[in-house]
Amino acid sequence: MRRRTVLTTTLAVALATSLAACSQTAQGGTNSADSWPRKGKPIDLVVSFAPGGAVDTAARLVAPILEKELGTNVEVVNKPGAGGQIGYTALTSSKPDGYTIGATGSPSVVVSPLDPARGAKYTRASFQPLGMQVIDPAVIGVAPDSPFNSVKDLVEAAKAQPGTITVSTTGLQTGEHFAAADLEAKSGAKFALVHFSDGSSQAVAAFLGGHVQVYVGSASDVTDLVKQKKIKMLGVMADQRSQFLPDVPTFKEQGYDVLSATARGYSAPAGLPAGVKAKLEAALKKAIEDPGVKQRMTNLGLQTNYLDAAAYQQFWADQETTIKAVLPQVMKK
User: Fold this and answer.
1) Among candidates 75, 71, 68, 76, which has minimal Cα distance to 35?
2) Spacing of C-alpha 54 from chain mean position
3) For residue 128, what is the enclosing H or E element?
4) CA dist., res. 190 & res. 166, Å (int)
5) Which candidate, 328, 301, 330, 309, places its Cα nearest to that of 139?
6) In order of start, what are the domains of the chain with their CATH numbers?
7) What's the whole-number mean pLDDT along residues 167-175?
């Protein structure tokens, strides 16, 4: 009888201990966070675009600070293609243990799961936003010797010869695609859109090589080109002029109500333990707001605009609502 009582008590204690451990893990407690990250185990930071673009550059700036804060290596892994969809698929398919995070840029990350034809295996709910770093306004530019000197010049030429002026984007249903389509809808112009799914570096190379006549991209992608006089800027798609391109008028100044910008931040796969999420969010905040990183971002034409995980998640949800309203227009292209 005594032996049975001892055995029952032992089993009860073991069960209680196990349940407590499971509860702590589910809540992101001691088991999931205190020992994370494991010594010697690196964190992959997935960038869904080719090396050299603004997303890749920003990720490589924050990576060393993350390493310092988290005490482990952070390796930037480029997975370009399909307008970011390949990298986003890899990110959301990863185990939500904190060892895989990714750079997320909208509208590309917002749009791809909204179009059934793209067959995305993820939705907004597949991501755990961790923090936003920048909002980068869209711009439009042409070669220095181009006959176009204003947005009106470009629009009038595209209306006179529909579908003949080539315009770059960084892939189907990306921010640049939305921007060009919105300009067409509001001006009556008709462009020949050329989609470069590997990202801005590929689009810039095509523009500089004379393979496309008009470059549509982010302000950060052109600041060096402007300094080198390799591009003539026609307009900025923002409410006010860019601090990095103060001489370039906005589209609104030129009579076209076109606004477009890319928001860039960092996310993990959904299901991340709360304790690990807290560590990653704190480390990213430290990295994004690091004075040295902010200065280098400024030098690249990128203004830091940090949002914490909750605010970034709400921003993401709001963008999804807006994009749903205009997506049919882009899906026709």
Assistant:
1) 71
2) 9
3) strand 127-142
4) 10
5) 301
6) 41-135+263-331 (3.40.190.150), 137-261 (3.40.190.10)
7) 87
